[in-house]
Each structure stands twice: as structure tokens, then as C-alpha cells.
Amino acid sequence: MIEKQPSCDDVSEPELMPVDEARHRLFAALKPTARVESVGLSKAFGRVLAADVVSTMDVPGQNNSAMDGYAINASSIPSSDEATLALVGTAWAGTPFDNDVGTGQAVRIFTGGIMPAGTDTVVIQEHVRDDGEHIVIDSDAVAGKNVRQAGEDIECGQSILHKGRKLEASDVGVIASLGITTVEVYKPLKVAFFTTGDELRSLSEHTPGDSLPQGMLFDSNRHTLACLLQNEGVEAIDMGIVRDNEKDTRAALQRAAEVADVVVTSGGVSAGDADFVTRVFHEMGSVKFWKLAMRPGRPLAFGKVGDAAFFGLPGNPVAVMVTYLQFVKPAIRLLSGMDDIEPLTLSAVSESKLRKSPGRIEFQRGVMRVDTDGTLKVASTGKQGAGRLSSMSQANCLIVIDAQVDGVQPGDTVGVQPFHGLLN
Ligand code: AMP
Ligand code: MG
């Protein structure tokens, strides 16, 4: 009788580690880099704050008008009918009116103009008659209206952006509005990556038009990984293709661990004879976990080689992306100092029947959309093989199906992780 080894095809394997537990253990084992630098605001976008940004002023700095109109004191508003007020001057945005304004007086004011002393209300120009010397308002004017209060956006002394925040366009704008010109940020992480496989052909060695020898395939994973890493703003170090032998694998891992904070590889992590990453890594580093209860991406190695965190991803192109998104991306964000690291998972109603066996969480490729009734719906992209990278390009989300689920019927609720955010 053949003694059977665990295989990717097995329906349920009790020794497989649940993804949540693996994630928990992984994040507990990692600490953010302590390397900090100061950068000018023009270089701050996408960087991670290493210290809180504390406001040194009120924004806006003074009470000002939200509309074009007339600044008055609320005591000038008549209780019924109309009131005639003397027009005593103009407050432009950037050129304030410097005198006091009393009851029975008004100042022409434009949006952003500082509220003159004695005024607390702006009556919009559409509700006023103006003859050049006097204005007429009526009892519909509302006390305190159309005024932006000093500090209503940001108060002086307020901690407005916190350590661990990856700076968005709005954040850079907020910092600029405070007159702050430099920020403390974490230095970019160094991430070395290489692919493994005797069957791989590098595009840099390929002449267009030449045919690919039998059994060879183009190294797509290295290009995918390079782009995924570029998205994180890390310093990515492309170490090329490493052939399937112990000597090259050991040398590459060693070099990578010397130059980088994180090492990411693809291929060579299952139990096959040509899977040298597993073997060499076992020798050189401390392994944290191997076989995950997930699909695609069951074999995944995580651990330390020297001081570097090491991720040995599977070779199949979809498995590379899925394991990167579920493990490597959050880990890179954590090590980069970010506090918001986990992928966003929403609920959607499946429009497709999805095949799945219980035992492993599955990340299938989906196209989500908002239906006419407002519900989030998701349909499968079709066949889900871990080698079908085009399914990732067709998809706009991952469909997340919990480990214990035994198939999904149309109308069932599933998780979805959108590929696109609005700001990042
Ligand atoms: P492995 O985990 O090394 O056995 O790889 C599994 C499968 O993934 C291989 O048979 C290839 O079809 C594919 N593969 C591995 N590495 C790459 C790569 N760098 N680019 C594209 N496909 C790959
Ligand atoms: Mg291989």
C-alpha cells in the first residue's frame, strides 16, 4: 500500500493552520522598523508618520465668511419686516476691514473675508438690497449664519494625524494648512525578492519573436511582485531568477538577508524534490509556519533569516498574489510602521454558484458591483485554477469563503476584498 503524503488536493487536513491563527502569529512576531527620517512636505505623500502631527494654530485662524454677502451683528436683524443698515466698508479675502461695526451697520464681505470686530452673522447677497450706501435686510436673516468659526476644522494643540498613518493627499493638505514644512516618517523598508525555478525564462534574456523552448515559461511572478512592492513604497531589490539547486538558493537567501529587511521568494516551497527553498530555509532560518488552511496558497513559509523576515510564497501566479495580499502586504505595512494593515473585507451577495470543499478558507476571483437595489453583488470570474493569472486581471475583488463552508449557492452571503480603494 502507498503511504499517502498530505497533498494540495486533500479535502481536509487537521494539521493545516487556520489563516487567522497564522496571521495572528505572524503579526505578533514582527516589530516596526525603528529607522526614522525627516522629510519635506513635497516628499511626504505615501510615507508613514513616525510621530504625531500636532497643530500649532487654529484652522481657520480667524472667524471668516463662508459666503459672499454682508457682515452684521445679529442685533441688527429686525424681529419683523425690514431694517436698513449703513454700509460702512468692505472686507475682502486677504484684506480685512479694520474698524468696529455696530448695531445698524453692515460691511460688504466676500467668501474667506475675516469677520470684522462686532459682527457675527453674514447675510448672503441674494437676500439683500444694496444702493451703495445702505442695505436692506429682512427678518428671515438668521443669527450666526454663514460664518466659519476659528478652529472649526483644526484646533490649536490638537493631535491631528497620528503616528502610524500612511499619508494620503488629504493628510498632506491638512499638514500644509498648518504651515508645517517637514514631517517625521519611517525610512522605507528594503525588500529583496527572487523567483525560483529551472523552467523560468527571464524577459530580460528574451528576444521578441524567439520561441520559448519546450517546458520553459516566462517568469511573470517577478514582474507581479515588483509591482505589488512598488505599491507599498518600499525599496524593492530585484535579485532575479534562482535555479533549483541548493547552492544557488543558499547563496541567494544569504545575500538577500544581508541587504534587506524582508525577503520574498516564489516557488520551491512545496514538498517536491526540486523544492530547495524549503530545505535551505530550514537549515538557515527559523521557520514559523508552513501549511495553511487556505486555497490557493497552501504551502507558505514564514520565518527569519538573520534579522530579515522571510516569506517563501508558492510558485503558482495566483497563489503568489493571494498569499502576498493576505500575509506579505500586511506584514510589510506593519514593519513599515503602519497601524492600518489588514485588508478591508465587505459582505456581498453571490450571484454565482461557487464550488468549494470544507476545510480551507478560499480566496476566489470575483467581479463585484452594486445592484440597482443598492446591494453589493459578486460574480465569479469562472475557473479558479491557481495558475490562471488572467483571472486576477478580470477580477476587481477577491471572494472570501470561510473554511467550514461547503459550497456557495446564488443568494448566499460571502466576503469580498475590493482591489481598489478611493484614496489609496
Ligand atoms: P513551484 O511551487 O516551484 O512548484 O511552482 C509551481 C508552478 O508555478 C510551476 O509549475 C509554474 O507553472 C508556476 N511558476 C513558478 N514560478 C513561476 C514564475 N516565476 N512565474 C510564473 N509561473 C511560475
Ligand atoms: Mg519550482
Question: Would you write up a description of this structure?
Answer:
This protein has 424 residues and is α/β, with parallel strands linked by helices. The chain folds into four domains: 164 residues, MoaB/Mog-like domain (Molybdenum Cofactor Biosythetic Enzyme, Chain A); 59 residues, Alpha-Beta Complex (Molybdopterin biosynthesis moea protein, domain 2), CATH 3.90.105.10; 85 residues, Beta Complex (Molybdopterin biosynthesis moeA protein, domain 3); 73 residues, Beta-clip. It is 18% helix and 29% strand. The protein is built from seven helices and 26 strands. The strands form seven sheets. It has a six-stranded mixed beta sheet, with no helix packed on it. It has a six-stranded mixed beta sheet with strand order 16-13-17-21-20-18, sandwiched between helices. Strands 22-24-23-25-26 form a five-stranded mixed beta barrel. The longest helix has 19 residues. It is elongated. The mean pLDDT is 93. The chain binds adenosine monophosphate (AMP) and magnesium ion.
CATH structural fold name of the largest domain: Molybdenum Cofactor Biosythetic Enzyme, Chain A
Count of the domains: 4
Calculate the terminal CA-CA distance, rounded to whole Å: 55 Å
Radius of gyration: 31 Å
Apparent shape: elongated
| Residue fraction in strands | 25-35%
Structural class of the secondary structure composition? alpha/beta
Instruction: Name the strands of the widest sheet in spatial order.
Output: 7-4-6-5-9-8
Uncertain regions spanning at least 5 consecutive residues: none
If classified by CATH, what would the architecture of the largest domain be? Answer: 3-Layer(aba) Sandwich
Major sheet: 6 strands, mixed
Mean pLDDT: 93
CATH class of the largest domain: Alpha Beta
Percentage of residues in helical conformation: 10-25%
Count of runs of 4 or more consecutive helical residues: 7
In CATH, the homologous superfamily of the largest domain goes by the name MoaB/Mog-like domain
- Give a list of the ligands: adenosine monophosphate, magnesium ion
β-strand number: 26
